[in-house]
Prior knowledge:
The structure holds 3 protein chains of 3 kinds. By secondary structure, chain A is of the alpha/beta class. Chain A has helices at 26-35, 57-65, 86-103, 121-138, 142-148, and strands at residues 6-7, 10-11, 17-22, 44-49, 70-75, 111-115. Chain A has a single domain, classed as Rossmann fold (3-Layer(aba) Sandwich), CATH 3.40.50. Chain A starts with 5 loop residues before the first strand and ends with a helix. Chain B folds into 2 domains: 2-234, no CATH class; 244-378, no CATH class. Chain B contains 14 helices and 8 strands. In chain B, helix 8 crosses helix 14. By secondary structure, chain C is an alpha/beta fold. Chain C is 28% helix and 24% strand. Chain C is built from 18 helices and 32 strands. Chain C has a 5-stranded parallel β-sheet. Chain C has a 5-stranded parallel β-sheet with strand order 18-25-19-20-21. Chain C has a 4-stranded parallel β-sheet with strand order 2-1-3-4, sandwiched between helices. The relative contact order of chain C is 0.10. At the A-C interface, helix 1, strand 4, helix 2 and helix 3 of A face helix 4, helix 5, helix 17 and helix 18 of C. The site of one iron/sulfur cluster has 16 residues of chain C, from helix 17.
Amino acid sequence: MAEKSVEEGKEKFEPVIVGFFCRWCTSEAADLAGTIRLQYPPNIRPIRVMCSGFIDPIYVLKAFLEGADGVLIGGCHLGECHYINGNYKAQTRVKVIKEVMKSLGLEEERLRLEWISTSEGLKFAEVANEFTEQIRRMGPNPLKKLKRE
Amino acid sequence: MEGAFLESNPENKGNIKKIKESVNRFLQQLLEKKVVEWVLTPYINPENPLPERRIITKPEEAIKADPLTPVIPGFPMSTFVSEITREKPISKPLAVLLKPCEAASLVELVKFRQANLDNLLTIGVDCYGSYHVLDFKKMVEEGEKPFERMINALKNNKGDELFRTACKTCLKPVAENTDLNVGIIGVNNLFIQANTSKGTETLKKIGLKIVENKERDQKIKELIEERGEKRKGMFKEFLKELHGLHKLNKFFEDCINCHNCMEVCPICFCKECFFESELHPYVYEKYIKFTIEEGTIQELEGKLQFHLGRLIHMSTSCVSCGLCEQACPQEIKLFKLCGPVSENVQKSFNYRAGEKLEETPPITTFYEEDLGLTEKQAE
Amino acid sequence: MRVGVFVCHCGRNIAGTLNIEKIKEEVAKHSGVVHVEDYIFMCSDPGQKLIRDRIKEKNLDAVVVSACSPSLHEKTFRNNAASVGLNPYKVEIANIREWASWPHEGKPEEATEKAIKIIKATVEKVKSNIPLEPLSVPVTRKVLVIGGGIAGIQASLDIANAGLEVYLVEKKPSIGGKMAQFSETFPTLDCPQCIETPKMTEVANHPNIHLYAYSEVVDVSGFVGNFKVKVKRKATYVDWNKCTGCSECAKVCPVKVSSEYDVGVSQRKAIYIMFPQAVPNKATIDPEHCLRLVYGKGCGLCAKTCPAGAINFEQKEKIEEIDVGAIIVATGFDVMDPSLLTEYGGGKYKDVISALQFERILAPSGPTGGKVVRPSDGKEPKTVVFVQCAGSRDPEHYMPYCSKVCCMYTAKQALLYKHAVPNGHAYVFYIDVRTDGKGYEEFYERVLREAEATYLRGKVAEIYKEDGKLKVLGVDTLTGKGVEINADLVVLATAAVPSEGIKELAKVLRIQTDEYGWLKEAHLKLRPLETATSGIFIAGAAQFIRDITDTVSHASGAAAKALSLLSRNRIEREPLVAEVNEEICSGCGNCVEACTYQAIKIDPETNIAKINTALCEGCGACQASCPSAAIQLTNSYKKQLFEMISILAKE
Ligand code: SF4
Ligand code: SF4
Ligand code: SF4
Ligand code: FES
């Protein structure tokens, strides 16, 4: 596969990150980042959703269980949600997932919530870079190892 | 707190072992004085060592009521209340006897519009601990009396190793939010505690003398503190045992995905469980396809999806009844999971399930503040 | 399911990075895909025709166009498919340009891999999309204009003249805005009163305009075509139906307050008419200073004097509800408070003033009657230093942006000063002189000649007082030498900033602002008049500082946008709304709590959630809160999300 290259005899780890991006802000920021040719790693695979408040925690769980190494949720800044307060709801839901993950030692850092507005193409690229690097350092989703065992 | 001692039968005075009779007499009076027309209570089933749940309507039936029995046979009482009152409030006044965890889950069910308290007289019964249904059954079959065993443990303030884990760590030995409580903790004589004006009215109707009882308050406080310490330690251990995906997976190794744990859970009120919806069989096909592609057929994700998903759905309202654990045919110690995880989740929202009727559960509360989730996390 | 996938090269924009052949090969293998084809420009006429032809030939029942962002061409491709009978909602866009080829130019293989995933996920989505018809809703053919400066005035007049009703809401007691405060305007030097006042009067007399002065928008609900607006009509304590604008009241009022209109250069009374040409020409009591209102008793001199008996100390504010179909925000700008600029002695020295204050001093009808005098002692200043970019273009300390109008008005002020004080001398510190408008450069040249002003390229480092003189220390970056000027008056061209309260208003309107508070347009280049919320438009400097010419054009543009929206009696809405599966709903009410638009109720009979589709905005918050997937969002079904996730999460 293209994502894997051989380095010192062992496979280099290329994280898979599922992104849930609000169509009113983070999706647009990702568009902008592309338009101005900011370069960031191709590890984030985006899904465009209506609002960060659209994200059912089960989607996040699903992504991890399907093998994603990280999940990035992008919404509008607090107070700027197109639907007024969807992002506040997203916050609460993310908090529940994170508390569950944290309690069970499931590396809650693999889930990240960011507020990225339409004009923040640069922030989008920075977050993409930084989060990909963070997940790379953390290594693969332990589920994968479990399944190989 | 205020309430009344049941001193109607002088020979029972000071004899905690006779409290069963006192409670039954109390229930009898409720019916006789037409305070309620029905009483929903655990009830002695002559055919079976385990009690059943029954609605009694005649005063004389009260002799066989068994509200203090130290077992929850299968479903919690709150589920029955939900089934009776969900569609529309009950038509005749009904008294229902609830263990504290059952009372707490009833509160949560009311918040989710799954139960209606109109026309209900809620009576909590103090619970010092209860036994796993199978242990209970075995005891009875072997001639031991679980109720007396529990009462002795209470008298000696020793606890009982055989109590369910949820009970050993339980911080609600006395029901909150009920109209009345049948008090056996911190008293020598059966004490009916009144928590609401409706409760006080009831006691008056029966002709009981209302008194203050500070001693009981103190005793309860001590018990809760003691349990709190214990719970802390145990929960820490539990989470250690479950730390990380590998251990979690190991924990569920024997799970057969029967979903019994969800069935009995009072908080899992959905008509159709999300994890049993049409979305899932479909996904399962996929799993099989993928796992075949990967050379092994295992439903690891399915199991984890169910348990973690369920945790996400119910942890904000879990009342620590531990009935999931009791329901598991594979003897998976589920309370080790949902107990401490739910506690953490609820603590993070400064919420305690079943505590206050007016409080909305975190998942439907709108927090108009920055919860600080986007702050850089230390790596 | 017969899905066709069309892969656009976008010239080399996509094909230059991504391996189109590989994409085609991989996507063709995906279940349900019956046709894959690429073309150099899918959005071109031949590209569109190609898609139409294939839909017919191959009998496609769903289409994925793998091209640029859906925010650019989704509509185009959907309409195209609809023209040959394929339901537009059976067309989805896979964004492989902004999201794959452009940001990963150096990694063609990985980018191709990512594009394939995106396309496959989109195919999965489109497979479960159901065909939909747009919802058609009636519209209220009325417009709310917020802000009564020249932008709001222009927009209101354009719309009213087209025959639609307008509600013009202004928070001050009079319309006119900043323009009414200016002396003469560049580059033509006409007096704004002469050109703006007639428009103000026209507004006041227009049968289609309801003017709500001294009022604020406090709540907006509803959606495009059907907004419900709550307007707070603040108490003026004067019955405007009776007030004749004679100003007798102000003459007797004993309380003097610094005048907002004259930016502190003069004083007004606690009861006042903002300026002589105010529209409406009615008196207002300032409750913070009126003795009667502050102490609850006493004074009342105005009430005794008013020949019309218009004073009413008991008046209460009122909330009025109005229904409109579109909203134009024309809230303009403010200028930075000079006291923030401490290094220039702003707020500390009386003779360091803002350019807006100087406008009032220069104004022929202003507080000094057009005589140029300085605030400290009323003497005529012989040396005036103008400091441009005071607070602008200074990312470290103040605003990083250029305030755009300061170069021109500074030049104008230098000229007017020269006209007023022929023996005076003006110095202008500037970073650049930007003269980007019709006749602007010519005007600047004229100023250099006529005003004999000394233009010094450089920043002022400090201004302090020594021996009663203002010492201006700066550097002339052209000669590299330090400059020191003894000034009588310093005029700071303070940065333009978004108008006060705009962030709160934006929240009420559910529109966005940028970090400073300038309103955010839907697209900087292509949709500069629209906000992201449909039906809400921006006019004038609320979006970003602009001069009068541009403001008027922008406002007419916004008016045209609103008019075209309201040109029909009904408008079509996206049919992407929530639906409830009654079999599964347990009536828990989680969705009711989650819905911000109160679109869901629990039916008391059935105990099941019911949706009011007219109120549903399609945000999906409800479906995220339902524990049993009983409520779902049309064409964003959980099944679709699950399928997409499962493709994307796999290595
Ligand atoms: S009851 Fe036990 S076996 Fe059944 S699903 Fe729950 S954990 Fe698994
Ligand atoms: S999608 Fe749901 S939450 Fe959003 S507006 Fe519609 S009904 Fe309300
Ligand atoms: S959240 Fe789901 S189950 Fe609850 S009322 Fe709404 S649709 Fe019904
Ligand atoms: S619209 Fe972007 S988070 Fe709600």
